[in-house]
Amino acid sequence: MAEKPKYFRKLFTSFWLPALYDLWVWIGVLGHTKKLRENILKFIPQHPKVFIDLACGTGENSILLQRAYPASRVLALDLSERMLETARKKARKQQCAIEFSVQDATHTNYSAEIADCVTITFALHDLPRTQRKEVLKEAWKLLKPGGVFIVYDYHYPSNFFVRIPLFIQFFLVENKDAWEMLKENLELTLQEAGFRETKKAVYYKGLAQIVAGRK
């Protein structure tokens, strides 16, 4: 693979990242990680045969999808070899047959229109605006007509006190791109990228959101 992009080298090359990644997400959503991730199942299209999980990190969402749809094929990718090593260990422990690979979510090597559902969870906020748009283009390319793209990420809470733990996390470990996306209208962003029948749901006092759209 070509040299990793600059934003990736700044954020995701530390050896300790996989050990702390799940903890960061847990803190950011006040410990509701498992229940929050399960909400994504409400947005899955009927009878999915192929999932692609972009920027899969330590594999939590990939494993969720494979366990919920054991007959489906789950392709999971990430730029971080360290994160994927952790993801593979988790998948083996839970006996989940997931196809992991080192790839860039902005430009994968998969063929066009192979997926019924493309997901990206708690990862889009880490990318600069240009790369975020490229991820949406790639998701569009990968989806079959009628397929669904699902984004699960942080949301800007309206309650000041609810913002505090999220702001602490963002101050400690996130960059300016994450702060920028926190106030972005993701549903509008998906619509501008061509997705239709968009839906948005906000969870746990506004700490997290799911936005989905159909190709």
From TrEMBL:
Pfam families the record matches = Methyltransf_25
Domain Methyltransferase: start-end pairs = 52-147
Write the protein's name.
Methyltransferase domain-containing protein
Q: Which species is this UniProt entry from? A: Candidatus Wildermuthbacteria bacterium RIFCSPHIGHO2_02_FULL_47_12
- Lineage start: Bacteria, Candidatus Wildermuthiibacteriota
